[in-house]
């Protein structure tokens, strides 16, 4: 994050959550679920995680998108491996995945891009649907992304307690990768508690349910859920809820540890090309 | 190497569906034990859908083929013209028990969408059906009928614009409307409990075959044949015979126009273990794990995955898989129309095509039962095109000019 961004974001933090989270970076107590000495997803100020699709709009331009995200001030890059049928994504991401595949993206080209993105010096979380991971072989896939520099893995259609979920947990543990749970408002407490036992790194909270507040885009329900997640998981909570604007980022920053934005960058690529991404991030971070 | 048996099925879904599937499973288990639910379901099957469906002795075809006696289990006689209404009625009743206000469904040929729309109207539920825009183009008459039944048909404009994309879109809509909507999945696939649930509802087909054949021939069938897209009519036709080792069970897939990926929809030809649409099974996919495009003349078989129970039964050798090409299917539909006065759906015609190969090889005292999953009315336009019927083209043009 650039210094000017850092100052502005600290201001966001101070206005929104100083009472809960004051103090200097690094002084937060390590929680039970987060025994890792160095968790790059934990900070004393809200972090910004920018989502991108490996190979969108093309394999070479995707590298420029990553650079733009980094230069614009993203703290974390979420790199999605394109899949033919991304069932948990909205139409914007789904069509972009289709475009990436049409432009020649493969799992192999995505992993090459991952190595390049990792060199930007930001933590990189890889997101993939289960079938490409399963097809490559779970231990093989996890080792490959570790070698390419990823520090976390997100697989939205793989429950932890499935055969493959357990294999992913084991492989991730062995390779020092965080296998990140994806949860949504409505997931009952008993289930969250079950997931928390195996969760490390951070928690990815998203939803496709129309949760809209009376006066704002985000309902109080969401913030209550984030608070519940914090108490159950004792890990940083990343929230992705269709972030479009600077206001959205500011509002979510008051509650979430990590704010995720994704489709806004796909739209930016569509209208302004890969070179417009740096500016888009700056605008979001205000 | 491990010889461990593959665990087909499962529930590979985002966490947000966990609770919904848990509640659905519990409701299904309790409904199975509830005599009132059974009574209501059976009453609808008998007095609304028109069960039992007839078992037709294909006498002239049997003579012509010169081997086993061929019987046709005519599921096309069901209300709405196919077996699909059976699991829709079952799921519709479950949705009401769960207090849901709306049924949602994906559809390929339009048969499952039409059945869901029909059941929704009958049971007083709202209905939204997702359908690939390519399928809408191929199956306009069913879209029109669904709309007349008060259903909203939503075109899916991305991906291959066929059945698998309709499933993706229906899943997304469901995740946005979990409190109000029940997703009425149209085959023996998807996350648990759907494969087991739809198999349970459809198993009535095999029980009727057993009873009807007992009465007519006083024996078990030697072979039961059914077409397989996801596999709902096949699992329904096989279920009661699984323990009868003397009964060959043959599922017939879409051989399309060739054996290259993208030219067919046969998992026997190229299915590989994968995890997709919430379940583990055999899928048509690329080396990279991308789901492959499929082709079949019949929209209902144009899908990359096979129901997990069928994959399991295929692996264990209990169920055989075969395939019929587009041309063989059209020719078989024509053959049974001329010989038996039965115009079958193009999906079911795949099973008929295999029957023409299997029956002549069997002795005259053996019996082959072929399930006709649906009737051919919906394929009028496809048949007309396959037979290059010029007068039909003229009719459509005149019809267009008249309006």
UniProtKB/TrEMBL annotation, chain A:
- For the region Disordered, give the residue spans: 1-39
Q: What is this protein called?
A: Tryptophan synthase alpha chain
Originating organism:
Candidatus Kaiserbacteria bacterium RIFCSPLOWO2_01_FULL_54_20
Tell me which domain of life the UniProt entry assigns to the organism this sequence originates from.
Bacteria
Q: What are the Low complexity biased-composition ranges?
A: 26-37
InterPro entries reported for this sequence: Aldolase_TIM, RibuloseP-bd_barrel, Trp_synthase_alpha_AS, Trp_synthase_suA
Question: Keyword set for this entry?
Answer: Amino-acid biosynthesis, Aromatic amino acid biosynthesis, Lyase, Tryptophan biosynthesis
Spell out the GO cellular component terms annotated for this protein, sorted alphabetically and separated by semicolons. Answer: cytosol
Tell me the pathway.
Answer: Amino-acid biosynthesis; L-tryptophan biosynthesis; L-tryptophan from chorismate: step 5/5
- What is the catalytic activity of this protein? (1S,2R)-1-C-(indol-3-yl)glycerol 3-phosphate + L-serine = D-glyceraldehyde 3-phosphate + L-tryptophan + H2O
What Enzyme Commission number(s) apply to this enzyme? 4.2.1.20
Q: Which residue positions are annotated as catalytic?
A: 78 (proton acceptor), 89 (proton acceptor)
Q: How does it assemble?
A: Tetramer of two alpha and two beta chains.
The record's family statement is: Belongs to the TrpA family.
Its annotated function is as follows: The alpha subunit is responsible for the aldol cleavage of indoleglycerol phosphate to indole and glyceraldehyde 3-phosphate.
GO molecular function list: tryptophan synthase activity
TrEMBL record, chain B:
EC no.? 4.2.1.20
Q: Which domain of life is it from?
A: Bacteria
The organism of origin for this protein: Candidatus Kaiserbacteria bacterium RIFCSPLOWO2_01_FULL_54_20
Give the catalytic activity.
(1S,2R)-1-C-(indol-3-yl)glycerol 3-phosphate + L-serine = D-glyceraldehyde 3-phosphate + L-tryptophan + H2O
Which UniProt keywords are given for this protein, alphabetically ordered? Amino-acid biosynthesis, Aromatic amino acid biosynthesis, Lyase, Pyridoxal phosphate, Tryptophan biosynthesis
Q: Which CDD domains match?
A: Trp-synth_B
Specify the protein name.
Tryptophan synthase beta chain
> Which family is this protein grouped under?
Belongs to the TrpB family.
